[in-house]
Design a protein that fits this description.
homotetramer; alpha+beta; Helix Hairpins; Immunoglobulin-like; 2 domains; five-stranded mixed β-sheet; five-stranded antiparallel β-sheet; about 25% helix; ion transport (chains A, B, C, D); potassium (chains A, B, C, D)
Chain lengths: ~325, ~325, ~325, ~325
């Protein structure tokens, strides 16, 4: 859970009231690294050595749909080919009902069709296991088949029920200016889905890299508002650049020199999944526009219903000087 | 999680101690909008443009049972019709066992029955694939069939296990008066289900619309009590209209002029689902009755068991002046 | 979530610093009620009127195993009997392969066996649908069958994966005495399962009934310790009866006159279910023993492993005066 | 949830501001116990007496994969053998289609193959139930079969979707020294999986055993930082040995005399499982090395991507004096 006070991300037991914050990404580096977080929320990190665990479940749950379907089809094909070859090795004479002319391709197809009929438990029975050998192999295949579809059931449910937030971020963060003249860092988000996010919280970190030592520093950027109760429309997240802000007094050249990256972490409760969902993103220094303001991205229709336009989420206009 | 102190919904990092609160529903509108939240908990918001994601899983999980059954039947019918047409195209001669007189409707039915027997993996076998073509198509259909039922399993489980609160709200909120004469806003809730909700929390926002600018403002209404440990009976939620309250000194005409809407958010732990459940509702200015009090909605039976009457939840009586 | 400070269960927005607490069980009653919470954690509450929702999923998830198996068998039997009667109505001549002598009982059995073979998708095929009528009905039954087993899969998973705590409570609460002479209320709990509960929290309420008005009052009883990090052995929960305690200065007769009931709510994270689990219980005034102390319920085996004895959890001895 | 302030694990209602903490593992023991927590996170505790609940679901969910597959195969074999014996008892004459020479082993195999074809709902039909007796038994077996695979589906999903953290701990904790000379206790962790842990929290307890009375005491060790936002690389957890620390002024001999054990509890949100995951470990006094420092375990590749080396997680070097 995100702490209700953003400052709580800094340990309460710190000896020195911490002004910097290492979010577990590391602090001292031999050279410049890429951005910490990519736009899809992944990290630019690799793992090496040790008892590294590849988790097939996680892999199958997280891959896109087309590769997943490919994996299913290939797995289904290979397993049935293997069983078909086993039936061929036992001899098709032991599968009464196979009547087609005997040549190797037709034999293989006959065995493959029988295998698939067994694996999926269709079992028409016009071909059936006529010996102990094919009886054993087909019994094993039937068990493997039902367990495989038990697995597939779990995987499909796992894929569908995995709670994911589809938060649409504005392409650029901007440096804008409040009515009282105070500059502020802003970006804008909207929900791509028609579901409702509740109790949405935002946390924003600033990553800076020392131009000389390459050491990385992480600072929490306090937000004008870090919590909203409901998230049906768009939300403009604002960090006021007060004299306390690590961004105070810096210009575009400083941002670039320090390889600044604004890291965003969102968390909310999704009514559909009935679970918390998370989203991440970051803006690097070249994804921050100066002296702009966002144009309102929603309007009210004739029927009194507010309409949010996801395409307009990115629209900004210059500040009048 | 709802913060344990209701004031925490206002960002702790606000530059100016916030008295208003934008719950992500928007603030500045070109014209009057409908109520923010409908009685079924939905928002009066539409989405447009952008990479809008229709999520079939969410759609199938959230629809009512009769439409869902309709979708299942139509999907089952269309898919089997398609496979039946494929078998027809390959020729019924390749499905040995089909013995009925050949006319197009009877042929189609024969192919359809074979298709369904394959799709559901019943596979009686009195009709069976007798060629490579029907062998391939029936193998594909068997795979599609078992994967479809794997999907259906996940969908049915997802529908049933989705934690939903069935909170019964009184039809009207009322403006009542405490024993010491202080006016207060009240509404009453009960649990429609026989399950037990634990650690139920309430949060109440007031939406007001500026009659001139149409700007919307959201204020948190502090509650006499915003948390109860157990929720077996009914709960009367009370906001005392102290001089600090945004409702202080206002009458029914003011409520209407400002298009006031009282927005309620409930959250509790459901013992059956073993998860948190949420409920939302709102009362618009014309759903608030003045100078009423609620009549007790529970009594004790002869067996010493308390009985809550959901029909009496709405009953109020005039305050004696 | 239980608040980290127990006092937080009393609303932070109370006008008067609350000393009493209505946990949603009701406050004013026309007559004496039974105990609030039974030993199995259920409440003595009924519901009446309104759009009362019976939720079959909750019912099937929460019932004991034997009744559940009974429901499954009866449902399976009735549905197959219905389909068998449909096949009989269509005429067994339309189910080629039925060869047994025709009498009504044998006919019914033949139709029933065919129905079950279709419902479970076994489909041997020695009997098969030989007309459009039986073709349609058997197609419908095959669809109903696979969807039924999809449902059963979800129900079985829901029953097994439902996180439940098996907390063993001492049969009696006791009034004991600290080393410094201060009296205290104690009860003892242990985990019946071999799983580990983490971050276990306890909250204890005292229900008192006014002997004259029958009004009920609920007070939070502060605990010497309301949180433990790990719960492998037993835990003695202690409320010190300081002058601030609502139990201060009261004797057994007062407990009975006020129908006192000590209500306990436990919450912890279960490592196996990977979810929070909850437990409830209560001790009524006649389940509280005076001037006792608990005997230690664990010892260290020869292998250096601590052993907790669930039978000794209840053992107490008199306080030496 | 771990409290945001570590001190909150000590009850806020304590009469005396607690300096020690009993984490439910027990306090007073007749003799020395083994370490409290093993490296696999299990506790050295046994249970005895009482209504001890063996939960088959938990057992099947938590066992390793090979034993689980063994249980499945044995269960499948025994159940089908039982049904095969039932068919034999009814007489193979009642299973038309069995054509093999009749000897007991071949008869048993024929019955077993028919049983498996029924259990898995393959039902080729070359053998089929030809009497009421075999009709009943095969109907029962088909029902048991589909329900068994419904169960297996739930178990497989439960095993895969159970959220587990694979945190790699350094083999040794070390006593190191800060730049300002203050000694500190350190250990290092990394994520074995390529998933991302968010909002990772650490809590560290110190167990000490009184050399004379064998009484155990648990103290919370405050951490330099007990929370990180993201956990892609490694994290060095640090307890500064200030004058307030229970470790202040102690040397290796004291650690051994008091059978010190440093107990670690980790909790974070796992993006893949979309749930919180927990990890536990402990270092006993002989697993703590003195006057060492950790060598950095990550570096930056040519492509600007940080690489963490799990093998180097354990590497330390002597402090220069």
């Amino acid at each position: 859970m995100l702490p209700s006070k953003s400052t709580a991300v800094i340990s309460s037991n710190s000896m020195n009231p911490a002004t910097t914050l290492d979010p577990g990404i590391g602090e001292k580096f031999s050279r410049r690294t890429k951005r910490a977080i990519n736009h899809d929320g992944s990290f630019n990190v690799r793992r090496r050595g040790g008892p590294h665990r590849h988790d097939p479940y996680q892999w199958l749950i997280q891959m896109d749909w087309w590769p997943f379907i490919g994996v299913v089809v290939v797995f289904f094909g290979l397993l049935n080919t293997a069983f078909a070859l086993a039936y061929l090795a036992l001899g098709l004479d032991n599968l009464p009902g196979v009547t087609a002319p005997h040549n190797w391709w037709q034999d293989f197809l006959s065995a493959l069709f029988f295998s698939i009929q067994t694996f999926t438990s269709v079992g028409y029975g016009h071909v059936y296991p006529g010996s102990n050998g094919t009886g054993f192999v087909s019994s094993l295949e039937a068990l493997v088949g039902v367990l495989t579809f038990a697995l597939a059931t779990g995987l499909l449910y796992g894929r569908f029920s995995r709670p994911t937030a589809r938060i649409h971020f504005s392409h650029r963060a901007i440096i804008s200016r409040r009515a009282d003249g105070l500059p502020c860092l802003q970006f804008r988000i909207a929900n791509q889905r028609s579901n409702i996010l509740i109790d949405l919280r935002a946390r924003v970190l600033l990553k800076t890299v020392d131009p000389v030592t390459n050491n990385q520093q992480y600072n929490l950027l306090p937000l004008e508002r870090d919590f909203i109760s409901f998230f049906p429309l768009s939300w403009t997240v604002v960090h006021d650049i007060t004299p306390d802000s690590p961004l105070h007094g810096l210009g575009p050249a400083d941002y670039e020199a320090q390889s600044m990256e604004v890291i965003i972490q969102l968390k909310g409760y999704d009514d559909t999944f009935a679970q918390d969902v998370h989203a991440r993103n970051s803006y690097t220094h070249d994804e921050i526009e100066w002296d702009r303001r966002f144009i309102r991205a929603y309007e009210v229709g004739d029927d009194g219903i507010a309409v949010v336009d996801l395409d307009q989420l990115h629209l900004t206009e210059p500040l009048e000087q």
